[in-house]
Automatic annotation (TrEMBL):
Residues 137-180 form the Zinc finger CGNR domain. InterPro entries: ABATE, ABATE_dom_sf, Znf_CGNR. It holds the Pfam family ABATE. Signal peptide: none annotated. This is CGNR zinc finger. It comes from the Bacteria.
């Protein structure tokens, strides 16, 4: 494991959130889809279940996507992460749950709005990545027809393709066919 369990989980959750409108249309278009996403990553705390909450998560998604896209420019990425930490008024505290018995950080009150809790935890996970000198693990899929993002958690940072659209397999098959045609 490269990072703590909660950091890796939160980075994956951020990637899935960003990709929720980058591959095959909008996948987070209603409150049911938002609940399914939140449940799949074990988000706890307040949920308002209204259009304003969904809209605020969509705005967070756009901010996170901008951070991913500037990951090659550490100074800009740090500025965006710091702005997100400030906007969410992150206030760390240790906790654990029956489903996650290891101590981990929460960065906002369970009573704070959903986008604020998500944004604070995702910003802190990104801060962990930056502090470790691993910002280059945030990538955009290398497939020419894909805009999805990925968190490359491989040991040697060799991941290039997302797992949302079978991009790696498609690119490998295309390269194989190209090599066969050039023989």
């Amino acid at each position: 494991m490269l990072f703590s369990h909660d950091t890796e989980l939160t980075l994956r959750a951020a990637g899935v959130l960003i990709n929720s409108d980058r591959v095959d249309g909008e996948h987070l278009g209603d409150l049911r889809a938002l609940d399914d996403y939140l449940d799949s990553f074990g988000w706890t705390g307040r949920r308002d279940h209204d259009a304003a909450e969904l809209d605020s998560v969509h705005r967070l998604r756009a901010r996170l996507g901008a951070i991913w896209e500037t990951a090659g420019d550490e100074v800009r990425a740090v500025g965006q992460v710091n702005a997100l930490l400030a906007d969410t008024r992150a206030a760390p505290w240790l906790t654990r749950h029956p489903e996650m018995p290891e101590w981990h950080l929460h960065l906002a009150s369970i009573h704070d709005p959903l986008w604020q809790r998500m944004g604070a935890e995702m910003a802190m996970a990104l801060a962990d990545l930056i502090r470790s000198g691993e910002l280059r693990r945030l990538k955009v899929c290398a497939a020419p027809d894909c805009d999805a993002v990925l968190v490359d958690l491989s040991r040697n940072r060799s991941g290039k393709f997302c797992d949302t659209g079978n991009c790696g397999n498609r690119q490998h098959v295309a390269a194989y066919r190209e090599r066969r045609n050039n023989k």
